[in-house]
Design goal:
Strand content: 15-25%
Radius of gyration: 32 Å
Number of helices: 6
Number of strands: 10
Number of domains: 3
Order of helices and strands: HHHEEEEHEEEHEEHE
CATH class of the largest domain: Alpha Beta
CATH superfamily of the largest domain: Outer membrane lipoprotein wza domain like
Length: about 230
Amino acid sequence: MQLFNPVGHLCRRFEFEVTVIGNWRATSILSLALAGFLMAGCTPVGPNPDPAAAAQATPTTFSQSDYVIGAADTLDVFVYRSPDLSMAGLAVRPDGRISIPLVEDITAAGKTPTALAREIEGRLKKYVQDPTVTVIVRGFVGPYDRQVKVIGEAAEPRSIPYRDHMTLLDVVIETKGLTKFASGNSAVIVRRYGSSDQKSIPVHLSDLIKNGDISQNLEMQPGDTLIIPATWF
């Protein structure tokens, strides 16, 4: 038994009416436009094949240059229209967590400020209607595995928070240069690949600093270690 299709019947009816009144120019133009509009409405509706629209639905991933919160960073947590819940100068504990009113022991280390703000909003929804949270990083240290470490004959050996496009010269400036005992041209950058592989990259720091050899101004990577040995005489 064939079922009656009212939508298909309506479309065929308008096709017939357009044919009958085709002898009248003005009426025909109007009817054709109306029929085209209605027949377009009869077209089956399916998923959007536009690749651009599909691309917009793809989740966004963090790039390497996004700042990631680390232990000992200092944060400002601002809750819009809720000053009692906002915190300024909040230090990230050594275990990587923070606490604010109504939200205890939330992990901050390893997240971007935006991701942390969204998570705090989710926790506050039980107490605040439509909370809006902003996390601002005031003191920068960064995660341990992203810090650039300088050891040996630097004037101030220490760990430096990694910055996007940081160079070897930036690191030397941060550590106040070399000591008089440094063998700058024997320095190496130890760079890790994955959890176990590493590579030693020789660099001529003395040529970079004293002679301006810009070819030695390599771009650093998160987790690099710069080793500056002492001279033997």
